[in-house]
Amino acid sequence: MLVYVDDIIITGNSTSHISRFITSLSTRFSLKDLGDLSFFLGIEVTRTKSGVHSTRSRYIADLLRKANMTNAKPVPTPMESNSSLTLLSGTHLDDATKYRTIVGSLQYRSLTRPDISFSVNKLSQFMHKPTTEHWSAVKRVLRYLSGTSSQGIYLSANNIPSLHAFTDADWAGNKDDYTSTSGYMFILGAIQ
What we know:
Layout: E1 2-4, E2 7-9, H1 15-28, E3 39-40, E4 43-48, E5 51-55, H2 57-66, H3 97-109, H4 117-124, H5 132-147, E6 152-156, E7 163-169, E8 182-188
Helix pairs in contact: 2-3, 3-4
């Protein structure tokens, strides 16, 4: 069961258990069954016999429209591999509103796109005083998303419950204060 304010997703592999659970909830709360999941909090859900695929192509299209980049030329990666953004790289933007709006939207977008998480985290570090180079990096993430808008998260119906863990650090990679950025990820299920 996933609850967000007054929206609920109930799923499982036993329809009888799901029905009993919904009946139990409906004795305490007013419920409206909207049928099979297809759209939830901006996430598009496509179900097949082999699993569930969640994307946010409409959200990406809206974001590209907001940034005036609907015809952006796609790039293969969300950030240049040798990128070394710092607080002082570039000239400060006169109005940071658009930068903050787009990066905030990208933070929300990264929930179903872990491939942009590092880039978005890096760009979020400059919200207080973004520069022209930071804005160029934001536009690169948008160009990446324009070419990969149909990608998302796939949950297989035949998942093997195995645990995988990954971790990495850049060891004093921040050129402003020499702090390290580290990250970790745990996956319960098959990696395909």
